[in-house]
Design a protein that fits this description.
This protein is of the alpha/beta class and 201 residues long. The chain has 12 helices and 5 strands. It has helices at 16-26, 44-50, 65-69, 71-74, 93-96, 109-121, 126-129, 137-147, 152-159, 163-177, 182-191, 197-200; strands at 7-12, 32-38, 55-58, 82-87, 101-104. Strand 1, helix 1 (16-26) and strand 2 (32-38) form a beta-alpha-beta unit. Helix 8 packs across helix 11 (182-191).
Length: 201
C-alpha cells in the first residue's frame, strides 16, 4: 500500500514513552501513517482536519467526565472519523461505548494492527453502538429528575404519582437502558440530549 493510501492516524497521549512505543509499532506496517502526536485535547477538531485524520487514538484520561460522555459531539468531530480509546486504567464500560475501538497498554503490534484494520472495514460509528429501547415521556422526565438529585418522594410529589409508580418507572429505565448506576444514566442522558451539562453541575 502506497503512503498516499495509508490511513492517517492522529494520536493524543500525554506519556512520551507510550507515544513513542505506539509510534514504533505502527511504523512496522504499511497500512497506517501516524501523522502527529499531541499531549492535550485543545483544538482537537481543528487538528483532525489539519492532518486529515482517518483515525483518532486518544487517552480518555485527558478529557473531563462530561467530554468523555459525548466525545464526538463535544469536540464537533466528523462522523467519518474513527475514534479509538488508548487505555491503561479502568474505565466504565458505558463510557468506552463512545469509542469505535479500544487499545490497551498490553496490546502487541499484531493485535493493534488487527483492531485498527477492523475499524477500516467497519463503518459503524459510536452513535450506532447505542441501541436502547426508547424511554416513554414520563420515564424521561423521571430520569432527568433522578439526575438532578430528586428523591423518590420528591419525584412522586413533583409528578403527582405514588412512590411505587416512581420505583416502577426507575426499574423500566434500568431495563431499557441496561444501565444501573446513576453516573451511567447521567452519561446516557447527556449523550441523548435529555439534560444539559449545566443542569447537572
Amino acid at each position: 500500500m502506497s503512503n498516499k493510501m495509508k490511513k492517517r492516524v492522529l494520536l493524543v497521549e500525554p506519556s512520551p514513552i507510550v507515544s513513542e512505543g505506539l509510534s514504533m509499532l505502527l511504523k512496522k506496517n504499511n497500512v497506517f501513517d501516524l501523522t502527529a502526536c499531541y499531549t492535550d485535547v485543545s483544538q482537537l477538531n481543528e487538528r483532525c482536519i489539519m492532518h486529515r485524520a482517518d483515525i483518532l487514538i486518544i487517552n480518555p484520561t485527558l478529557m473531563s467526565y462530561q467530554n468523555r460522555a459525548s466525545i464526538r459531539s463535544f469536540f464537533n468531530l466528523s462522523p467519518n472519523l474513527q475514534i479509538v480509546a488508548l487505555i491503561y486504567s479502568f474505565f466504565d464500560d458505558f463510557l468506552l461505548q463512545q469509542f469505535d475501538s479500544i487499545l490497551t497498554i498490553n496490546d502487541d503490534s499484531t493485535k493493534i494492527e488487527k483492531k485498527l484494520q477492523t475499524l477500516i472495514t467497519n463503518n459503524s460509528t459510536s452513535e450506532q453502538k447505542i441501541k436502547n429501547e426508547d424511554l416513554t415521556e414520563r420515564e424521561t422526565e423521571i430520569l432527568v429528575a433522578m439526575i438532578k438529585g430528586l428523591t423518590n418522594k420528591e419525584i412522586a410529589e413533583k409528578f403527582f404519582i405514588s412512590i411505587h409508580t416512581v420505583i416502577s418507572h426507575r426499574k423500566n429505565i434500568v431495563r431499557k437502558t441496561g444501565i444501573k448506576s446513576l453516573s451511567g444514566l447521567t452519561v446516557f442522558a447527556l449523550i441523548n440530549h435529555l439534560v444539559l451539562y449545566e443542569d447537572i453541575e
